[in-house]
User: Fold this.
Amino acid sequence: MSNVKKFKGTREEWLEAGIKEIFDQLRAQGFNDFQKKEKEIKASFGHMPKGLKNTTIGVCQFLSDDIDEKEFLAGEIKKGTRHIFIRPTLKADTLESALDVFQVLAHEVCHAVLPHGTGHKADFSKLIITLLGAEGKPTATVRGAHFDKWAKPVVRKLGLPPHVAIREHSKAPKTSVKIACLNNLENEEFCSAGNQRSFEQGFGLMFRISTASIKAQKESKGFDPEIVNGETGIFTCPACDYDTVIIAEGNLR
Assistant:
């Protein structure tokens, strides 16, 4: 159990209060070129567009009913709502887990305040990593010491969100696991075998390998045969010879 107080309000109100705090921190760091006002950004805990099978933990949706589709296609959206969704399987019942969720919110807010089409390029990286202090790849940022320095007092002040994480149903053991090439469109010589769907997820070629083959490969390299979600350095991409990451979540045979 956590000794941090509970937020007095709904989950959405906690997220909205968090958005305001993130806006304040961006302003304090010198950023004022917001494409959206705080009230033009809505946030909820909800399923990812591609379902819980996908590993995405947060998403910012740019197209809403109050946005002109011609402006959207032209990349010149001025008014309208942007929707943020946080994966509902994420826990937020301790200060640490709530901070993890808050970092996901901050990541998506950085998308929401930038022009449509910015993606994870330099302007986005400047906000989430340079100004807000997150760490890791722009496509999958995590908390860092600099992030926690300003965010921890904020989450303590807000309290823990009244969120109960969804527990995914147990499934039959998987016999294959997804492998994703880390050579994406952000690199000058990106993976030639990637496609629009894989690039949108921040990867190059994506393919599947049997769990037995992964375990055998890990044992041959002297590694623990346990399959670990997010592990790199086990396979190289067959198309461009770049490093890959294992995308797996439990229930493995």
About this structure: The mean pLDDT is 90.
